[in-house]
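Inverse folding, one chain.
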């Protein structure tokens, strides 16, 4: 975290990206990497415990095993159990909430996820809602991107290895409302939003750009706040997906307060940014002002004013000024002795020397033209 100037740790398909390089094409929670003999469960437990004990505010950010695979709901529920109360954040959980019921062996696991979230206060999640239309998927999960490459639209994609340590894949994709799987994915995301009770532990995301670009957020907010609009949209999608989903029977509409919590206050709290996400004394004045409108998509698409650090940057929906934000970092204490071992590893396996890999405070500030905010660790 010090070397890369990070504020949190995300683990992507724990152990799976490495296993892929040994020709394993799937790695469930208790499967073992054929070379290192390590399971995702072990990796998750060690990382979640470490971050908790170091007092890093944001819990381990988990992109779980088996992304996109029908039946992965049991993996996701087992992952929650495996944490035994340790805090974790499950990211883009819509892609990890699939059952295998029905003729097409693809069903919604949203009710199970929502129940597990409601029952386990150590868990937070973001949805990773999909929206219909063209997008691009970009992920470090090369195992998943390789298996999804046959669906590339248009048919051009790339998967690559990075320094033998990581992976990356870019696969363009078009979500279609008349396609059963895509239509049900759309329902599953909305079901999770609407069945999860606590807006402090559910965050509004499209896993940009994988589920949809973030420019679709106003449309998504309208789907959550406006039941009749949601039902109109529901009636236009694939019929089998409609009947496989409980979405039409859910009456809940998010209030403006719940939207404000889910999109502002809760993410700030989750990341340990105590100076934002609220309008209290000495808070950073990052404020958006909207005029109320019956159509919430219209309302959220065009703010009257956006203040960044107290300065007006948007007026009547037009950007009037650009202003760099801060780089937020968290620097937990560590034993410097570890660097001796890490240096050996860098010298033997990497094309980059450890000294070049580390980003100093000065470098970060001079190259990014941003000032740094270091946020404290919490004592536990
Ligand atoms: Zn991810």
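Residues assigned per position:
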């Amino acid at each position: 975290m010090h070397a890369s100037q990070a504020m949190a740790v995300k683990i992507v398909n724990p152990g799976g990206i490495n296993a892929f390089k040994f020709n394993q094409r799937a790695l469930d929670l208790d499967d073992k990497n054929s070379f290192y003999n390590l399971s995702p469960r072990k990796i998750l437990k060690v990382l979640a415990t470490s971050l908790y004990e170091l007092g890093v505010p944001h819990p381990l950010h988990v992109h779980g095993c088996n992304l996109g695979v029908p039946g992965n709901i049991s993996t996701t529920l087992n992952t929650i159990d495996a944490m035994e109360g340790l805090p974790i954040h499950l990211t883009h959980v819509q892609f990890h909430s699939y059952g295998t019921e029905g003729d097409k062996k693809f069903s919604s696991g949203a009710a199970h996820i929502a129940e597990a979230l409601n029952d386990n206060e150590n868990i937070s999640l973001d949805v990773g809602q999909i929206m219909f239309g063209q997008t691009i998927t970009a992920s470090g999960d090369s195992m998943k991107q390789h298996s999804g490459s046959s669906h590339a639209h248009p048919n051009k994609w790339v998967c690559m290895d990075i320094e033998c340590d990581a992976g990356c894949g870019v696969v363009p994709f078009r979500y279609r409302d008349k396609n059963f799987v895509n239509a049900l994915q759309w329902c599953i995301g909305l079901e999770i939003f609407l069945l999860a009770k606590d807006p402090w532990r559910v965050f509004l995301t499209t896993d940009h750009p994988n589920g949809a670009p973030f420019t679709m957020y106003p449309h998504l907010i309208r789907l959550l706040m406006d039941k009749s609009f949601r039902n109109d949209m529901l009636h236009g999608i694939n019929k089998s997906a409609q009947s496989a989903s409980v979405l039409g029977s859910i009456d809940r509409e998010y209030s403006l307060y719940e939207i404000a919590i889910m999109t502002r206050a809760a993410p700030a709290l989750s990341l340990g940014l105590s100076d934002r996400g609220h309008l209290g004394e000495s808070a950073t004045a990052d404020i958006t002002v909207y005029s109320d409108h019956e159509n919430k998509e219209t309302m959220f698409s065009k703010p009257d004013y956006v203040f960044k650090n107290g300065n007006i940057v948007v007026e009547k929906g037009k950007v009037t000024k650009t202003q760099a934000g801060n780089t937020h970092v968290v620097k937990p204490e560590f034993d410097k002795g570890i660097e001796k071992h890490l240096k050996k590893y860098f010298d033997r396996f990497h094309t980059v020397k450890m000294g070049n890999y580390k980003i100093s405070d000065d470098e970060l500030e001079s190259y990014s033209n941003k000032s740094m905010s270091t946020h404290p660790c919490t004592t536990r």
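Residues 185 and 343 are 44 Å apart (CA to CA). The mean pLDDT is 96.
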